Amino acid sequence: MSNHLSTYKDRTNLIPYSSRLAEGRALVQDVWSIFNAANLPSDCLNLGQGYMNFAPPRWIVDSAETALRGVAANHYSHPRGRIRLREAIRNFYSPSFGKELNVESEILVTSGANEGQYSVFTAFLEPGDEVIMFEPFFDQYLPSVTFNGGKPVYVPLHPPSDNKKNPTSDDWTIDFDELRRAITPRSKMIIVNTPHNPVGKVYRRSELEHIAALAEEHNLLVMADEVYDCLVFDGKEHVRIATLPGMWDRTVTVGSAGKAFAATGWRVGWLIGPPSIIQPTLAATTRIVFCTNSPLQEAAASGLEKAQEFKFFETQLSEYTTRRAILMDAFEKLGLKYTIPEGTYFVLLDVSRVKFPHDYPFPPSIIGRGRDFKASWFIAIEIGVSSIPVSEFYCEEHANIGEAYARFSFCKDYDTLKQAAERLQKLKQYID
């Protein structure tokens, strides 16, 4: 045995890892690791990562504590999800889908929205199947597709023209000729993220109707990532693509308790769709995680059950409207162009005019990345406010589009946002 082992002189990588890790960018240091609090000054305000720095409502936390003190909710749940939560999802969402949802065949509780999406890819993708993704895209889509044998096909949203004074997220547009050209005989799915992370775009009904027509023509499965459906501003209409004529049968809609109730660490999400999509996905999720954590399903159920009584989503929207205004006012005073988001809790700031010394001591993780990485790092170190560079959410071919922008999140308490707004004014000295 010792002679056999001695033939391997370099023992650092004895077993080759799967090529899917490279294809999904999983081995590249991701933007979340680079702009992690551990790598930034201790007093840097984190407006980069999209998690809240405040707790869920007390009445929802109380439900979690009650569940933890019991017996049943501390054990395995049914892989479909706890019946209380499925019934709460049915009661809350049925009106917006225009149909009575079936808790046994049309609702599936998952371990966060991300695991739910992953399970759909597992259930439906064959090697080489193509998945169309609008850019910028939530970065988890890419590895979730490639790990399941899929091939991503990228269609960029086109940003507003330079002469647009106060662009909104609606000014980020789809070139439908470009979208049609992206569809091939291998196309299997299309992901529609509305409200959109990181742009904040709330897709217009006409846009969704055009996408729906293409999906019907080419028999595409539609993944409607609608985790920010509770955060739509300025009276904008959130249209569920699943409710358009003929689309229920080919659409799976993704929801999230973490986004809805300021509880991103709970990892409770759900899928809504026809049995023909939910049943195969159930088979996949059962083998991936078996079931989702039980006590926090009970808490999420309580959130949906009592939301109307507490006027929770109306109050939350009002509070987020105020938060959005604090950040946008800061950008307005700064004199930099930004995109007014009509949904989500992100604002894109145009950082193309931010100057930094060519010999600035950027860490190795920033070298070789887009200009937006350097701008975001410079702002974090010198100004004390962190953001996320948007080129991370593009393929290499289209990364130049994202290099102009940094994503700032406003899912923070008022004091943090006001402090960040004050700090950002110091950026004026570095604007070209």
Give a brief outline of the structure:
With 432 residues, the chain is α/β, with parallel strands linked by helices. It has helices at 2-6, 20-23, 31-34, 58-69, 83-97, 112-124, 141-146, 176-182, 205-218, 257-261, 275-288, 294-306, 312-334, 371-382, 399-402, 414-424; strands at residues 45-46, 107-110, 130-135, 151-156, 187-193, 221-225, 251-256, 269-272, 338-339, 346-350, 385-386, 388-389, 405-409.
Summarize the helices and strands and which ones pair or pack.
Blueprint: H1 2-6, H2 20-23, H3 31-34, E1 45-46, H4 58-69, H5 83-97, E2 107-110, H6 112-124, E3 130-135, H7 141-146, E4 151-156, H8 176-182, E5 187-193, H9 205-218, E6 221-225, E7 251-256, H10 257-261, E8 269-272, H11 275-288, H12 294-306, H13 312-334, E9 338-339, E10 346-350, H14 371-382, E11 385-386, E12 388-389, H15 399-402, E13 405-409, H16 414-424
Parallel strand pairs: 1-11, 3-4, 3-5, 5-6, 6-7
Antiparallel strand pairs: 2-8, 7-8, 9-10, 10-13, 12-13
